[in-house]
Design a protein that fits this description.
about 35% helix, about 20% strand, 10 helices, seven-stranded mixed beta sheet, alpha/beta
């Protein structure tokens, strides 16, 4: 019995060539084009090998429904969301199975606000997808395909401009960080962003070729290699992300995983310290985390 096609408000997910096959990809891409009423749509993907083929199917199918398609290539999923806003698009699709192994892939659907479509919107999309026949345009009413491979650069620029980013202070500290991007979509942008802040970076699994050399979910049992690299290099911190770079896990200077769930807590503590004064938080004595304590 084959694994089912997983469906939720964030999209559809399946095993490539089994439940996520070309007819399924094209059916849902066509349905999304019809759902968006031939609007502008952004398409991006992570680095897993099947992504190039699936993305190609999606881009072509959307154009045949009359959409103006903006292909932004291999990017983090949050970059797709921001690109939807940048291009004033009606929606977007991220081709990524997130933390799942290489045999999986998925289509994640976003609305005009760069957020996942709602439950009601997904139900409407599902109705269209399960209809008898997709609606394609004749030759003289087809959409268009454009490429925008600068979306991730704009994303990094927007991060560096945030008021909460103490770039000059980070630059003065001379931090050294090990980055494990699991050869995913963050292989270029995460190290590059750190270097733009004056941080020394040791790249670990940052080839961006979709070769997940260990289980891709950034949980403690999958961060052994990163922890060892942090200890051996005497780095201040280790950073690990999942293949589509919408999750970030921290490893302290001893190589101990701090826990992905504390990434947001550290950010909140840092913000409160800036706005309200000292905030107590029980973490390691890492140079990178001491400033929020």
């Amino acid at each position: 019995m084959k694994a089912p096609l997983m469906k939720s408000t964030s999209g559809i997910r399946g095993i490539v060539g089994v439940t996520l096959d070309p007819p399924t990809v094209m059916r849902y891409a066509a349905a999304f084009g019809q759902f968006l009423k031939k609007g502008k749509v952004v398409v991006g993907r992570d680095s897993r090998p099947s992504g190039e083929f699936i993305s190609g199917l999606i881009v072509s199918t959307l154009a045949m429904t009359g959409c103006e398609v903006i292909d932004i290539g291999i990017v983090p999923t949050p970059t797709v969301e921001l690109a939807v806003l940048d291009h004033k698009a009606a929606g977007g699709i991220a081709v990524t199975a997130s933390h799942n192994p290489s045999e999986w892939n998925a289509l994640k659907f976003f609305g005009a606000r760069g957020e996942f479509i709602t439950k009601a919107q997904y139900q409407r999309l599902e109705q269209i997808a399960l209809a008898d026949k997709p609606v394609f345009m004749p030759y003289n009413r087809l959409g268009s395909i454009h490429r925008d491979f600068t979306a991730v650069e704009r994303h990094m620029e927007s991060v560096l401009k945030l008021k909460s980013m103490a770039v000059s202070k980070i630059r003065r500290e001379g931090f050294l960080v090990v980055v494990d991007a699991i050869n995913g979509a963050g292989s270029y942008c995460l190290p590059k962003l750190l270097e733009q802040m004056g941080v020394g970076v040791i790249r670990l699994n940052c080839k961006g070729n979709g070769n997940f050399c260990h289980m891709p979910e950034p949980i403690p049992e999958n961060l052994v290699q990163l922890g060892k690299a942090v200890r051996e290099s005497k780095a201040d911190l280790g950073l690990a992300c999942d293949p589509d770079t919408d999750r970030l896990a921290l490893v302290d200077e001893t190589g101990r995983p701090i826990g992905e769930e504390l990434t947001l807590a550290l950010s909140v503590a840092y913000y409160l310290r800036r706005e309200k004064g000292p905030v107590a938080i029980n973490l390691s004595t890492s140079r990178m985390t001491a400033d929020v304590a």
